[in-house]
TrEMBL record:
Organism: Allochromatium palmeri
InterPro entries found in the cross-reference section: PilZ_domain (IPR009875)
Gene Ontology terms, MF aspect: cyclic-di-GMP binding
Short name of one Pfam family: PilZ
Name of the protein described by the UniProt record: PilZ domain-containing protein
Domain PilZ: 11-112
Length: 342
């Protein structure tokens, strides 16, 4: 078991803590008797509750049983971080979530969504995101195989455009080329290493080493099932280029931050397909210029429909790409005087 790290201050700020007054049950381990408690607040990564009796702190995991529909429960393996004696004789317990099954994770997210909707009290409410979420975009069948192989072992290395704190819990959303490359998991950051971006001066991306917060046997079962849906290399000769086998396995898989609606840019809200199209050519000067011209002048459903905000963001993306990766000779000769291309 990895070293347990208390929740970082950044995680407390980024995870919505939702108020609740719900009777729950606690179980110290195995099939031992449960202890009644009252849930005070709940978040993606942990919970705060009150009990009438103090619990003995030990190395054994503490199981949190939240009520669910039809008499069922959401069972979460936790670790007890703190226990505080209150003046009224009750005890306040702070728990951090360690592991839960995929089905219990789905239930937990639905419960958090219900609590968050109730927390708004019907007024103007800018709801914070439940958790920082990264999207891992799978571009080839080989990438999907490699990702599933890593998932089956309980860990994954990805590159992210933002900094995260070791010990912080994240949502991990897999999307991509294979039709079945759709998977949502929870993970904890074990390590974060800054890597400079070539041509971007002080710019950098972070390489994250993640450990999944799900039982390893469940991850293996899911990974094996999903791997069974991927056609073997011998059957990929007639598939599109994105499905063709790759010879070099990447050390890390790139990921991007999934933003909430009020955090998204004009392009993400109104023209997400254009942004995805540009990202397919990011880093390749000739391909990026071709895609950019196609979006602006080509026969597409969005050409000529840009809003002022989205047009400004397009120009900003072009400027960033020019600065980071350069400009082709053909386009350089066409640029008007006054445009800084160096």
């Amino acid at each position: 078991m990895p070293n347990l790290i208390s929740p970082a201050e950044s995680e407390r700020r980024t995870q919505a803590r939702l108020r609740a007054q719900v009777p729950i049950q606690l179980r110290i381990s195995g099939k031992s008797p449960t202890h009644p408690a009252t849930l005070i607040d709940l978040s993606w990564g942990g919970a705060l509750c009150q009990t009438s009796t103090a619990l003995q702190i030990s190395d054994q995991p503490l199981w949190l049983l939240l009520p669910w529909t039809l008499g069922e429960t959401i069972e979460i393996e936790t670790t007890l971080l703190r226990q505080k004696n209150l003046e009224n004789g009750r005890h306040l317990l702070a728990m951090r979530f360690l592991r839960l099954s995929l089905s219990n994770q789905t239930r937990l997210e639905k419960l958090l969504g219900q609590l968050q909707a109730g927390d708004s009290r019907g007024g103007t409410y800018n709801a914070p995101s439940l958790v920082a979420t990264l999207e891992v975009l799978i571009q080839t069948l080989d990438e999907w195989r490699w990702a599933l192989s890593a998932i089956a072992k309980g860990r994954l290395r990805i590159s992210a455009p933002a900094t995260f704190t070791p010990g912080q819990s994240l949502g991990l959303q897999f999307n991509g080329v294979p039709a079945r490359a759709r998977l949502r998991l929870r993970a904890r950051v074990l390590a974060c290493e800054a890597e400079p971006i070539e041509g971007m001066g002080a710019g950098h991306s972070d390489t994250l080493t993640l450990e999944f917060e799900h039982p390893l046997n469940i991850l293996r079962q899911w990974a094996e099932w999903l791997l069974g849906q991927v056609p073997p290399n011998s059957q990929t000769s007639s598939l599109p280029a994105a499905y063709q086998p790759q010879t070099v396995r990447p050390e890390v898989i790139p990921a991007r931050v999934v933003l909430t609606q009020h955090e998204r840019s004009a392009l993400e809200i109104s023209f997400p397909e254009a942004l995805d199209y540009l990202m397919t050519a990011w880093g390749d000067v000739s391909a990026f210029e071709l895609v950019f011209r196609q979006l602006i002048f080509g026969d597409t459903s969005i050409a000529g429909t840009w809003t002022l905000e989205s047009w400004e963001e397009l120009q900003l993306l072009q400027d960033v790409h020019d600065q980071a990766y350069g400009v082709s000779d053909a386009r350089r000769s066409q640029l008007k005087v006054g445009r800084d291309v160096h």
